[in-house]
Amino acid sequence: MTTTRASLTDIDVRTLLKGATADERALAAHKLCRVLDREALSAEDRAKAADILRVMAADAAELVRRALAVTLKSSPLVPRDVAMKLARDVESICLPMLNFSPAFSDDDLSEIVRLGGPVRQVAIAKRPAVSEKVTAAIVEFGVEAAVETAAANDNATFSERTLTRALQRFEKSEKVLAAVAYRNVLPASVTEKLIDLVGDQVREHLLSHHSVSPELALQIAIGTKERAIVDLVDQAGRAADPKAFALHLNRAKRLTASLLLRALAHGHMSFFECGIAELAGVPHHRTWLMIHDAGQLGLRAIYERAGLPARLYSAFRVAVDTYHSMEFDGGPRDRERFQERMLQRFLTQAQTTQREDVDYMLDKLDRLAEERVRPVRRKGAA
Known about the structure:
By secondary structure, this protein is mainly α. It has helices at residues 2-5, 10-18, 22-38, 43-57, 62-71, 80-87, 91-100, 106-115, 118-125, 132-141, 144-152, 160-169, 174-181, 188-197, 200-209, 214-222, 225-235, 242-251, 257-265, 269-280, 284-292, 295-305, 313-325, 334-347, 355-381. Helix 4 (43-57) runs parallel beside helix 6 (80-87), helix 9 (118-125) runs parallel beside helix 11 (144-152) and helix 18 (242-251) packs across helix 20 (269-280).
């Protein structure tokens, strides 16, 4: 190792291999690791360095092995076999490697999560980057602290399926729920599940970190989950992917007639179309034609195919007709005026509408009226 010998004497190498005490060998190991990490090594020198590292990893003294693990914890120089050996070592040695070493593959880390126990699981969950494969293993096999740590790690990547699984395994854990809720981006389906499981800590987070209105927070608190979902569609930018959202709700058996009716009351025609398509098992483009371009018979046909109750058909018919007859004018409180007119038309069908839906419409109208006069009151008070 020509390059290295300029900074490291043969005495250092002999001391590492045959030093009388653990302290002497540990000091030589630390010096050697620092030199190796600084130098640009050829392929031949890298192979020789790997052999020296294997000697260190097999040393009986914990101090020597720790010098290796701590000094080269982030170095690409450590061979995989050495890293795996150190990963099975005592905690003071394995944790620096599991926290940082790039020597491990995703398969390696997943297997360590499965078999390595809580301390190693948490160490892996803290890594500077954690792939979807590894987070899936953490969620499936990890203890609560490991799942919480991974969810709180902004550099850990989660699939929607893995986040959902985390909520299933730890639905009673406020720590895991809060850690998931505090992630920068959440799929709509996961947010909806959080609402279903919410406790005080998560509710506060939803209010302060996810642009959730105080009204939604109150609805969550009193358990009006279905209304909260409609407001969630509002908060999510009128549902960026209404088809996926409808699919999730249907799988969760939450895509109900009253939910679709309330969505229409908010003017969410795209969500209504996707919901009907999902329930009917008909492609969206065909559903769209039946709702909008097939006259009186098209809506009834797709409505019946979706299995929605006959007693509510007239209310849906009025809602669709109202939607066709109106346009957003772009003025102040445009959407509120649309919703108010839609709800007023709904109320003309009260004799065929379920009592709970009528109550909801009246509540919404009261809120809209209060919001409309509130600015006037403020102006008068001033």
